Each structure stands twice: as structure tokens, then as C-alpha cells.
Amino acid sequence: MLESGHFGRLNIHQGESFPKSCSCCRATYRDVDAFFKNTRPSGTHQTGLRQASDDDGVIVEAYRNCACGSTLLVFFEDRRETLRPVT
What we know:
single chain; disordered N terminus; two-stranded antiparallel ribbon; mainly beta
């Protein structure tokens, strides 16, 4: 789980795994922390995070640019979506 600054409490989506590699320059990101530390947000949004939906519900897409400029994408589960209210 990632618990850092802008990124809040995100869990890696079950279909994701690390290390991740850039297909253009072959840079390798050994874990989630290295991925966020060594890439930059893609586009105009300051974090590069976008909410989306899949068959399992709400997910978070992290669009980040490698140092070579190639855009990488990692999927996360937003824990807020999985929490249930206490009754």
C-alpha cells in the first residue's frame, strides 16, 4: 500500500506487479515507491492520477512519464471504495 503525500492510501491492483520497465529506454522501477519517485506526472494534472472503473469497481490510474518521456501506467485500488460504514 502506498501512503505518501498526494497519493493517499492506494493498493496495487491485483493485476499489477513490480518491477515495471519502460518499453522505450528499459528503465526499471523495482517497486511502487521507486515508480513515483523516479517518474513525473503525465499531462496537466499535478499527480497524474485519474479515477476510472473496471469490472471490480472504482480503480485509480497512475499516468507517469519516465525520464525518457514515455508514459507509463499503473493501476491501483482506492481503499476508500472498499471500506464499509460501521453500523
